[in-house]
Amino acid sequence: MQKRVALEGKEDDFKSLSGKVALVTGASRGVGRGIAIGLGAAGATVYVTGRTLVEGDSPLPLSGSLESVAEEVTRASGRGVPIRCDHTDDGQTRAVIERVLHEEGRIDVLVNNVWGGYEHFVDGTAFLEERGFWTVPIPRWDSCFQAGVRAHYVASALVAPGMVERGSGLIVNVSFFSAFRDVDGVAYGTAKAADIRMVACMAHELKDHGVAAVALIPGLVRTEGVMRASEHFDLSNSESPTFLGRVVASLAGDARLMERTGQWLVAAELAEEYGIVDVDGKRPRSIRSDMLG
User: Fold this and answer.
1) Residue 286 and residue 293: Cα distance in Å, rounded?
2) What is the pLDDT of residue 9?
3) Any idea which residues carry the catalytic annotation?
4) What is the pLDDT of the chain when averaged over all its residues?
5) Residues 218-238: what's their mean pLDDT?
6) What is the pLDDT of residues 149-191, one digit of tens each?
7) Cα 43 from Cα 21, distance rounded (Å)
8) Hey, what's the torsion of the CAs at 57, 43, 220, 126, to 10 degrees?
9) Contact between residue 167 and residue 210 where contact means Cβ atoms under 8 Å apart
10) What string of DSSP letters covers 4-38?
11) Strand 211-217 to strand 21-24: parallel, antiparallel, or no bridges (unpaired)?
């Protein structure tokens, strides 16, 4: 059983996720992978989706696969189930959720992590030459919204009815400080802001049904993509993907979860409250002040 450290110190404020079912989108690697493993470590059954089912089958030149993540979830004390899904296709998203509901009868936690708009980091686009939104390829906007914001909305809309019927559940949109900054690109910043606003609106409509919706904001995460370009980053205050998984698992098991619904939450600040440390035993500090001043 997880133990609350900084809020009230009462062990019964937290519960394990044994018997709970989670769906994590965009979980082939990176943040989604870490969140899935964290939920598994708390005992949950975790369905993981993405486009890369097996190693080497990725549309991106990055390691990771759904099958390997599912195996890690199972090793971590949960049960991992991989399903290939392109979340830009609403029909595929619907099929995934219908399968989970058929097999498990419920979805207790939905983590909307899948995202688009990062293609320029790996497809050879000369993004370093971009100076102003008018120099950015128009499809960048479509990627951020179709594979990000819309995908999050569709999955939430399909999962919500079951949560409302049971009177419990958690929806998490993974976002970033770019929602509040003017320096991270028009398409990306607008999409991240939309994701956070979506959470606030969903929470308003879900609160009377006992269902929570929050946005989670990580710091610099040591994903495969970041480590591929590690020479360009200061990793001294970075977070492992597993760190985020520990945060989401504790949030999902928090008996006072509904007090946070509708909010955007900084992962490092939640970790401070919950007494969570990273895999190296350190506790990353919040970069809120660095990002927002």
Assistant:
1) 12
2) 34
3) 188
4) 90
5) 85
6) 999 999 999 999 999 999 999 999 999 999 999 887 899 999 9
7) 9
8) 20
9) yes
10) --SS---GGGB---TT-EEEESS-SSHHHHHHHHH
11) unpaired
**Complete edge-to-edge strand list for the sheet that includes strand 211-217:** 79-84, 45-50, 21-24, 109-112, 169-174, 211-217, 264-266
Q: Could you please report the per-residue DSSP string of 242-286?
A: HHHHHHHHHHHTBTTGGGGTT-EEEHHHHHHHHT---TTS--PPP
What token pair was written down for 43? 């005992």
- As a whole number of angstroms, the distance between CA 205 and CA 180 comes to 24
If we measure between CA atoms, which residue out of 211, 136, 148, 212 comes closest to residue 175?
148
Whole-prediction pTM: 0.91
pLDDT in tens, 84-105: 999 999 999 999 999 999 999 9
Structure tokens at 139: 């499809």
Q: Residue 137 is encoded by which pair of tokens?
A: 């390829």
Of 273, 276, 173, 287, nearest to 219 by C-alpha is 287
